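Because discrete structure vocabularies remain unfamiliar, we first show an illustrative case, written as a sequence plus integers encoding its fold.
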Amino acid sequence: MSSATTPPDSDPNRRRRAHSMLKHYYGLNEEGKVTEQAESLDPCDINGPHFDPEVYLNKLRMECSLGELMDHESCMVKQIRSLDSDMQTLVYENYNKFISATDTIRKMKNDFKKMEDEMDCLSANMAAITEFSAHISGTLQDQHAQITKLSGVHTLLRKLQFLFELPARLNKCLELQAYAQAVSAHRRARCVLQQYSHMPSFRGIQDDCHVIMEKLAQQLRQKFRDGGSSAKDLSECVELLLQLDEPAEELCDKFLSHAQSRFEADLQGLEAELKDSPVTDTGGDLVQKTNPGSNPVSPSSSSTTNPFLSPTAGTDILEFIDRGCNEFVSSLCLVIASYQELFINRPQEGELASKNIPEMANGKLHVFVDTLAARYFSLVERRIQEEKGVSDNSLLVRALDRFHRRLQAISKLLPGSAVPSQGTEIVVRAARERIKQYLSALQTFYHDSLTDVRQALAAPRLSVGGASASGGGASSKDATPSLPELLSSLSNFILNQLKSVLASVHLFTAKDITFSNKPYFKGEFCSQGVREGLVVSFIKFICQSSRQYCESAGDRGGSTPPALLLLLSRLCLDYETSTISYILTLTDEQFLVQHHTPVTPVTALCAEAREAAQKLLNHYVKVQGLIISQMLRKSVETRDWVNTIEPRNVRAVMKRVVEDTTSIDVQVGLLYEEGVRKAHSSDSSKRTFSVYSSSRQQIRYAPSYTPSAPMDTNLLSNIHKLFSERIDIFSPVEFNKVSVLTGIIKISLKTFLECVRLRTFGRYGLQQIQVDCHYLQMYLWRFVSDENLVHFLLDEIVGSAAHRCLDPSPMEQSVIEVICERG
């Protein structure tokens, strides 16, 4: 029952299945046609026409068991019920369709009855109209030929009237300056007058019209030459003159000459603006910078301001480009469009088609545009060159964007013109020049920062006692910053300045800038311009300028503070370890650099920075070693070692050497790590020195000093040196404090040794050398990586003094220790 009452639309699958079963029963295909099927003769085929129920049942009883018969019965019952349900559904559906079809047929019957009445009425009307038309045709048939003849005569009379009134009409148009109407009227009558010019009356009309049109052409030429007309009036004049058969080439020249005069005024205005505008200051810093010598904790304490931030008077570059685009470029586009409409795109008819006017006019237009654009571009480049201040980059970028955007209109109006590509080259050159200006500004900033660092290093350190004696305690802000603070400030200033420059340069690649995404600009600009031309060049400049401080000759190398050498070496080392990678990664991410062309690898820059750091540190060791060596050399050369008194204390210069070495140790320790030392012996500070090193000790107990003894001693000493480890005095140092101090002490003691070898000593002079060397040994061993190095060099110094001594009587070790401890 539920299937019978369910609407057919509620179960489309069931309805589709029922339709397919009916089609299958009636032998229909999908198109509704009867399919030819072979009839089955099997009496057991329940779907065949020869089905026999008795035979079918007997066959089932013989072949199937009781269970199979029961199953077969259940299946048959289900199929019967399913077919009954499908049949009810089809009957219900067809019943509704039959009812709907009956209603539709009844409605159509009423509508067609009304339509039949209307068609009968229409047929009657058409018959009446046909009868009336036949009656009229019959009535007017005799007069039709006469009416046609009179109409032709009337038309001819109107034409003749137009021809006879043409001179007066032309004069009237000439008075009213309706030149277009006059030319149009004359062109309509020109062919007829030419055809009947042999007749006197028409000949007179033709002559009068010719005189009038010659006068009109003269007025048009005069209006064309005056130059006071607008572009629209000028175009109208050219069009009318072409219609009057004026030479096209002459008109092209006159049109371009007239436009030239207008462009001259625009270009002269731009040039006058260039002469009046002041030149902007040259490149410098971008932002207000803090003096690295000031307290890094409070950057606001510096009052140094950037002179390049001061506003400049005059028209800025954006206004200049706007004026050029609005006046010159817009007028040029208008002239190109008008010229093309008049001479190039104009349909050529008759004799004009054989003269090939468009090609001639196009060539003249290209020459004219290229000449004017070259002058305009020269003015734009002059104005761009005046933009040397790097404080604000947005105006220049916007101006270049507007300049590039407006030139694209010329490329659309005049395909094949070189003007857009020339303008693009100006934009690219301006961007490159801007990169150079920013690089110069960064270099200037770097030099200024180093100057501030040198001033901070040269500033005297106020002690607490001196500050209180002067009337008040020195505040923390007045204290000279330490080397780590100076290094941190200098590194941060340089990095922040470089980031500020990159932010300014990034304006060239903004999404709203038309030329930023062009392949001829972005790839080359980001890769070769920003990365190589700015960032890599600045990093190389830092390394190269730092290496210049290592020059021993010249004012710079001679006056460079050692602390600055140490600070720069640490700066270059920091660049090698982390800063260079960070800067280049930041640049690549910010500018989406794609390395289509070869670029400088990070490893090459890091190697260059490490080389600079190594050279600076080596030079620092050399300078500090020479400073101490100079003190030792003067102390040896200025003393009379033969006639000196018996030593009672350590010489002051040795105390100064230990103090300076301690100061250097503290200074280097502020920037570099400790390093690795060899294990110290427990009696390093108590080591004693003999008059003769190693094998020379046997001579101490000789009863007499014979000439042969020194010979044997020298031989033994030289043999000992052959088997001892060679000491390289000026070998490169490592980046740690121990290695740096070892290099300085090696240079100092080697100088002391060579100076001793050049002097002659008395007994007390030798003893003084013993005291001095013991004092140095007490303190210097803790600074070096291998204490044996200090012991060896000091042994050599005492041994050399003994060889140069006239009376080699050494001082007792206990006395030496007492003097050194008291000193």
